[in-house]
Design brief:
The chain has 439 residues and is an alpha/beta fold. 17% of the residues lie in helices and 30% in strands. The N terminus is likely disordered.
């Protein structure tokens, strides 16, 4: 994932005054080498959540034959034209037809065949009379319920109590799908109903863009896994859970690797172990200027991994590149503060995942809204404040403060309020861009 901009080239700034990159520049670099994953053939249930890589055409009609939509009797309509409850049409039952039957009786004038839902319509029949429109072969008037095994047998009489129109309760061959129809187009997301359709037309496998496999790795010797005691100077690892869940929500298959200590040898070993199952690696922590930021130290061993500072708040320090050369695994290194990590994911990682999926909607939707409170922002930084958006009146309210550790407020937010780099203050009632975080 080598970017278009070279942080060591012209405009990068001197060591005493390193360049600050804009959000848009960094996003362009991150997406520059991102591309949809190559298509693969998967079995149906393995393809759930994937996007089709090609159009799918039906190889046969659906339904493949005329069949009954009701339990009842297949008959000729002319035999029921004058049927009433007082003067029913009396027909001879010539056979039973169950779903899956391959030998069908022929229905002639004055005849009917008992038929089950989904069973093929026999030759000669023009319609199906639901059992409720008959006496069920009992000779006692209208049938009270569904057909049972102790009613008429071949040779018995059936009384039909009302006229039956031609084609009534028959599902015609090809009435759903005709052979040659494009039933799903390339790019369609395969959910339960799409997979059911593929199964119905006889497809056992399908060619799709696979869901990218994302390894989420949090670093920091201070991290303790949930359920364990923290102790002095220790905190629970939340980033790996937040980012793994966010990757899954974006459409990825995600693997969580939590709490890698600040030790270069350990981090190298973990990375090498994860490379074999990753299409993308996302780390959090260790990308700033701290003495123990081993992420930078370890990634310095890999050509093509760059670290930079952005004109944004929160989320100033960022890293990106590839591990293993030009064809290696893409890497996105995010800050360690929980709010910074999540906002960085939404701005940079999610678009990469969506690009790998071949999705057309790479970015979160942005709407204009009126802020209910005054906003402030540091000069020269694009501020992303957490907020609650009210679509009914187009208003947005800030949630919590500006701190990048405020996970309680983050959990209440459903959007990000954007304050541009050249703006330091906005009064209540100002119109702002709002990034919606809900799907």
């Amino acid at each position: 994932m080598t970017g278009k901009h070279d942080p060591c080239g012209e405009g990068a700034g001197s060591p005493a005054s390193p360049r600050l990159w804009s959000v848009d520049e960094h996003l362009a670099d991150v997406l520059f080498a991102a591309a949809p994953l190559p298509p693969i053939e998967l079995r149906l249930l393995e393809a759930q959540g994937c996007r089709l890589a090609e159009d799918v055409r039906a190889g046969a009609d659906l339904p493949p034959f005329d069949n009954s939509s009701m339990d009842g009797y297949a008959l000729r309509t002319a035999d029921t034209v004058r049927a009433t409850e007082q003067y029913p049409s009396v027909l001879a039952v010539v056979g039973d037809i169950a779903a899956g039957a391959d030998e069908l009786p022929k229905v002639g004038p004055g005849q009917a065949a008992r038929i089950m839902t989904g069973a093929p319509v026999p030759p000669g029949a023009e319609a199906v009379a639901p059992v409720e429109w008959t006496d069920g072969g009992t000779g006692t008037g209208q049938a009270a319920d569904a057909m049972g095994g102790d009613q008429d047998a071949p040779g018995d009489e059936l009384r039909v109590l009302r006229p039956v129109a031609e084609g009534a309760f028959i599902r015609r061959r090809g009435s759903d799908v005709t052979a040659g129809d494009t039933v799903l187009e390339a790019g369609a997301v395969l959910g339960p109903t799409q997979l059911g359709l593929l199964a119905a037309i006889g497809r056992a496998t399908v060619r799709v863009r696979p869901r990218p496999r994302v390894v989420v790795l949090s670093t920091g010797s201070e991290l303790v896994q949930p359920g364990e005691e923290t102790g002095p100077g220790r905190i629970h690892d939340s980033n790996s859970f937040t980012l793994t869940a966010a990757a899954i929500a974006a459409g990825a298959v995600a693997y969580r690797v939590g709490g890698v200590p600040d030790d270069a040898a350990t981090l190298r070993a973990v990375l090498e172990d994860q490379l074999g199952r990753a299409d993308l690696i996302v780390t959090s922590g260790g990308v700033s200027v701290g003495a123990y930021d081993v992420v930078k130290e370890v990634f310095a061993d890999y050509a093509g991994v760059d670290f930079r500072r952005l004109r944004m708040q929160p989320g100033k320090p960022q890293g990106y590149g590839r591990i293993g050369g030009e064809r290696g695994v893409p890497l996105l290194a995010l800050p360690g503060n929980p709010v910074s990590a999540y906002i960085s994911f939404e701005l940079f990682v999610r678009p990469v995942i969506r690009t790998m999926l071949g999705a057309p909607d790479v970015h979160r939707p942005v709407v204009r809204a009126v802020t209910t409170a005054a906003l402030r922002s540091p000069a020269g930084r694009r501020q992303f404040l957490r907020g609650r958006y009210r679509p009914a009146d187009g208003a947005v309210s800030p949630v919590g403060g500006e701190g990048s550790h405020l996970v309680g407020a983050l959990a209440q937010a459903d959007c990000l309020i954007t304050v541009p780099e050249d703006t330091t203050a906005l009064p209540a009632g100002s119109t702002v861009d709002v990034v919606l975080l809900t799907d």
